[in-house]
Amino acid sequence: MNADFGQVWSATHARVSSSQLEEWLGFAQACCDVADEIALRHFRRELDIETKPDRTLVTAADKQIEEVIRARIAERFPDHGLVGEEFGETRGETTARWYVDPIDGTHNFIRGIPLFGTLLALEVESEIQVGVMSAPALRERWYASRGAGAWAVGAVGSEGSRPLHVSRVAAVEDAQLLYGSAADLEASGLAPGFRPLLSSVWRERGFGDFWGYALVAEGAAEGMIEVDVNTWDLAAAAVIIEEAGGRLTSFDGTRSIAGGTVLATNGLLHDEFRSRLGQGGAETRRP
Length: 287
Hints:
- The chain is α+β, with helices and mostly antiparallel strands.
- The protein is built from nine helices and 15 strands.
- The strands form three sheets. Strands 4-3-5-6-7-8-9-10 form an eight-stranded mixed sheet, sandwiched between helices. A five-stranded mixed sheet has the order 12-11-13-15-14, sandwiched between helices. A two-stranded antiparallel ribbon has the order 1-2.
- It starts with 6 loop residues before the first helix and ends in a 10-residue tail after the last helix.
- The C terminus is likely disordered.
């Protein structure tokens, strides 16, 4: 196994004890339980929808979920920082910082498509320590903590948690490749090899948002590509992918959730995918 990915390697990025990680993960799971209930209460109902300055959409459910999670974090961990999609950043007194995406896939949520979920992760000393992706309409959840592996619960049999492992596919022609928006990828100019790469793989599908990363962690796909992504979109996915044995970087190969682009893979095909995508220009760095 390459030295810069795999479950053993991922465990070296733990910054606290296993008992502390377990506590944080349990707290994150409990927050997502509440978020699931709020989201399902609004799903496929008449919604109050607003357009934000960046022309993306937000619902009352997005705001309510983030408000509830913020309040719970402030009460339980008052010295922790927080970055949320809807209400921005609250600085903490330690290096611990939560990332909250109250409803990833808001446009799906608005249109009654069940591919949406709450994403919650905790970073310590610039390393994501725990992450949860909860998709209540699918009745599935994916989660991980450093050194404890990546897991999923729900759907298949719904009998307890199952361990996640990325696939062992090592040839591009045998790979299934996922992506967010083909139009956005091409318009960005950052992936000039995107179309040729699609024609080289066994199968390609446009499964965007958290769902693509879940499928890579499940071993159902070998890669997921997106541009114009934010830290809260990727924080939970990063630790889940890495604990499942894969890799997640920006297009330039930097192991970061702040690069604005993302390539998540089973690790074995990461360098090949990145090489084929090409270097189409400087990435936009986010604060």
